[in-house]
Amino acid sequence: MSNADARLVRTLPPHDKPFGGGREARRSATRRLPLGAALVGSDLASGALSILVAVAGVAAASGNAETAGHAHAGLLLLLLLGINGSLGLYRSNIANPIERFRLRLIGAGLFVLAGVLTWIRTTSTVELVIVPIVGLMAPVTGLWIEHLVRMLLAKYGSYSTSVAVLGTGAESRALARLLLHRPGCGLRPTGYIDDGADAEAGLPREEFGAAAGALPVLGALDGWHAEDGTEVIVVPDYGRVQRSLVTLNKLGARQVLVITRLGDFPMFSLRLRNADSFVALELSRRSGEYSKELKRAVDLIVAPPLLLVALPIIALLALAIKLADPGPAFYGQWRVGQFGKPVRILKLRTMYRDAELRLQRVLASDPALRAHWQRHFKLTEDPRILPRLGNLMRRASLDELPQLWNVVRGDMSLVGPRPFPAYHMDAFDPEFRALRATVPPGLTGLWQISSRSNGDLDAQRAEDSFYIENRSLLLDLYILIATLPAVLGASGAR
Question: Terminal CA-to-CA distance of the chain, rounded, Å?
Answer without folding.
Answer: 28
